[in-house]
Structure formats: C-alpha cells, structure tokens
Amino acid sequence: MDLTAGTRGEILKLLKQRLQVTAPELSRELGLAPNAIRSHLGILEQAGFVEHRWLKQRRGRPVKAYRLAPRSEGLFPRCG
C-alpha cells in the first residue's frame, strides 16, 4: 500500500506548503470529516512521515498541530 497516494498524499502536500496544520484545518481544506483526517494522520504518523506538537489555545483544550517529519524529505523532489 502506498502511504503517499490519494488523501494521504494530499495531506503531505498541504503540510509541505503550510509547514504546520491542524486536523480541523485539513478537514475544511479537503472537505473530509475531521475523524477521517485524524485517521489518515495517525497512519502517516505511525509510518514516520508526520509528527505533531500540542498548541495551546486561548480557550479550551490544546490541539495537535501536524508537520512533516524528517523522514518525509525524500518524498518531495528537490529543484535546482
């Protein structure tokens, strides 16, 4: 199974562009349910392609912000 194809590939591309993003932001961007996005992120995180850190909010609980892990560098060709 290719972990970088389909929705997971789109998630990786968005993380490359934005550097850091939350599951609700990805959900809005890709038009998928937040739980579906979290499922894809969990698989990518277990494979070592993404990592998260907790972001404190002004109100409420902290949220996970996802970014590309060093292992994912090889997924994107270098230009120049």
Give the C-level CATH assignment.
Answer: Mainly Alpha
Strand content: 15-25%
C-alpha geometry: globular
Largest sheet: 3 strands, antiparallel
In the residues, how many domains can be counted? 1
CATH-defined topology: Arc Repressor Mutant, subunit A
Number of helices: 3
Side-by-side strand order of the widest sheet: 1-3-2
Mean pLDDT: 89
Task: Describe the model.
Helix content is 42%, strand content 18%. By secondary structure, the chain is an alpha+beta fold. The termini are far apart. It has a single domain (6-74), classed as Arc Repressor Mutant, subunit A. The longest helix is centred in the N-terminal third of the chain and has 13 residues, at 6-18. A 3-stranded antiparallel sheet has the order 1-3-2.
Q: What is the fold's blueprint, element by element?
A:
Blueprint: H1 6-18, E1 21-22, H2 23-30, H3 34-46, E2 50-55, E3 63-68
Antiparallel strand pairs: 1-3, 2-3
Helix pairs in contact: 2-3
Q: What are the main properties of this structure?
A:
single chain; 80 residues; alpha+beta; Arc Repressor Mutant, subunit A; three-stranded antiparallel beta sheet; 3 helices; 18% strand; globular
Short description, anyone?
This protein is of the alpha+beta class and 80 residues long.
